[in-house]
Design a protein that fits this description.
By secondary structure, the protein is mostly helical. The chain has two domains: 2-452, no CATH class; 454-528, no CATH class. It contains 23 helices and no strands. It is globular and about 65 Å long.
Length: 528
């Protein structure tokens, strides 16, 4: 597992750079643009192609493509491998072009579908057709992002399969740089400043694709797009991809549903959800996504070689590492929600109300972090075996559960006049995440794919008790040293950064000291 750990560390380090810069990007955006109608419109216009990218390119396509590519890499000739890449590149480009054109033509309809409150009117968005028109115009600009970023994801999948993790993991940094530049230097030259951000999205997508091509050329695997109906490898990928589209995209579909509902709540609800979701995405990407990316080729290879024990050990390692980091991340985000938001967002045109409202959804989102990470870790256990039906069935159940819970939680919350109904949307997503993760875990055990307690029935219990002790130490440190809200409202940015850095550092150090004191060692997270 040492190789997996090194690969995971590389991806996590690169992802950390990207995500930290992403938080800086968001801080700058919220500094130059107030949370409200225009920013809500941009987040909708950015979220639709971005979530399609996660669903189609990084989700269903990668989960279907990598197992087939791994098989060609292990069992086929280099010529067959190159032909596969050529035909996949041609088919993918053609499909993406069609999706992009269709999305641009249907931009007004998509804006109505995913942000109905902007058009239909609500107590908060009364007859706000101008906000709907702005969303549609921004979506027209941002939708081609799906074309370039999906091809970028195709290149990333190839590089990852050939154990080249650093460049794909670093690539998202480019989007952050472009958007920061757009917010600071380009926006003042636009009559509608938020449109500069939309143009930054498309330029960032192009930059991410171009940046990875030299690495692909160095491997000698640059595809020459070719379209051939009936190519065996492409047919298998498409067969796997269609059901995987839903199974790998439950979280993204839930976010789109939440966005549609949030558009009918108080003005700013979409921005508050976006602001809080970004901090949950940080540990999710650094741990959950990184582990998922690393283990998918390994699990696919184990399956091809019929190494069932190695397959289970890989999953066990991934689950343990995921839990080791997910639980303290959850506790830290819950206890430090307001300090984090006050440090990042309350320094420009936004006031303390943004911190208060976004902290409500950050807390409820954070409760689901362990489940979100486990979904990223467990799902490859099925896709690596080219089993798309099981996660699809589970995904449908989780998605329907999210819709149902959104209704029964948010509707009474909003109609009774209580503030923060958007936090109910985050809570429904959290509950749906646990349903998804729990059912994936159950099916892996039921199908005898994963044996979490093989060799030592007390191992998991001991590890969880050690982690619990570490969490208690974290909680004590944070509650004792964290100033009250009034301090975070008036402190300077420098003071807040230093105080937050101190709190986070001491919490992390105390957590791992307690783990070590109670006997947790590296060998406990390696196969027996």
């Amino acid at each position: 597992m040492s190789r997996l750990l090194r690969s995971g560390a590389i991806i996590s380090a690169m992802t950390m750079i990207s995500r930290v810069l992403g938080l800086a990007r968001d801080a700058i955006i919220f500094q130059y643009f107030p949370a409200g109608g225009a920013l809500d419109a941009f987040f909708v216009a950015f979220r639709i192609p971005n979530l399609l990218r996660r669903m189609v390119a990084e989700g269903a396509f990668s989960l279907a493509f990598v197992p087939v590519l791994s098989e060609y890499k292990e069992k086929r000739s280099p010529e067959d491998l190159q032909k596969l890449l050529n035909h996949v590149a041609g088919t993918l480009s053609l499909v993406l072009f069609g999706i992009t054109v269709l999305g641009m033509v249907l931009a007004p309809l998509l804006a109505s579908l995913f942000a109905p409150g902007f058009l239909l009117g609500s107590e908060a968005h009364s007859n706000n057709t101008s906000q709907h028109e702005l969303t549609a115009s921004l979506l027209l600009i941002t939708f081609p992002y799906i074309f370039f970023i999906s091809l970028s994801a195709f290149v990333s999948a190839i590089l990852n399969t050939f154990q080249k993790f650093a460049v794909p993991a670093f690539t998202p940094v480019l989007l952050n740089i472009v958007l920061i530049s757009s917010a600071i230097w380009v926006a003042p030259h636009f009559e509608e400043p938020v449109k500069a951000l939309a143009w930054g999205v498309i330029i960032g997508g192009i930059a991410q694709l171009v940046f990875q091509l030299p690495s692909l050329i160095k491997l000698g695997l640059l595809p020459k797009p070719n379209f051939k109906r009936g190519h065996e490898g492409v047919k298998r990928i498409m067969k796997l991809m269609i059901p995987a589209l839903l199974g790998s995209s439950v979280a993204q579909i839930n976010i789109l549903i939440n966005t549609a509902i949030a558009s009918m709540l108080a003005v700013g609800s979409i921005s508050w959800l976006y602001a809080s979701d970004r901090f949950v995405e940080l540990p999710l990407a650094i741990i959950g996504v990184a582990i998922g990316v690393v283990i998918l080729p390994k699990l696919s290879g184990d399956h091809v070689k019929a190494q069932s024990k190695a397959f289970s050990e890989t999953l066990n390692w991934a689950v343990k590492v995921g839990i080791l980091v997910a639980l303290p991340s959850m506790v830290g985000l819950i206890l430090l929600a307001k300090p984090i938001l006050a440090t990042v967002y309350k320094n420009g045109v936004n006031d303390w109300s943004l911190v208060e409202m976004a902290s409500m959804s950050l807390v409820t989102y954070s409760l689901g972090l362990p489940a979100f990470i486990l979904v990223k870790v467990l799902a490859p256990g099925f896709y690596s075996r080219q089993d798309t039906r099981t996660p699809v069935r589970i995904g449908i159940i989780a998605m329907v559960s999210n819709i149902f819970m959104s209704g029964i939680i948010v509707y009474p919350w909003y109609t009774m006049g209580y503030i923060g109904a958007h936090a109910g949307l985050a809570l429904s997503t959290t509950l749906a995440g646990y349903i998804n993760a729990g059912m994936l875990f159950y099916q892996l055990k039921k199908q005898k794919i994963y044996y979490p307690q093989e060799g030592n029935n007390l191992s998991w219990l001991k590890d969880l008790l050690r982690i619990l002790a570490g969490l208690i130490a974290m909680i004590v440190i944070i509650l004792y040293l964290n100033p009250d809200d009034s301090w975070w409202q008036v402190a300077s940015l420098g003071e807040k950064i230093m105080q937050l850095f101190t709190l986070v550092s001491l919490a992390i150090i105390s957590y791992f000291i307690v783990l070590y004191t109670f006997g947790l060692r590296k060998k406990d997270f390696s196969p027996e």
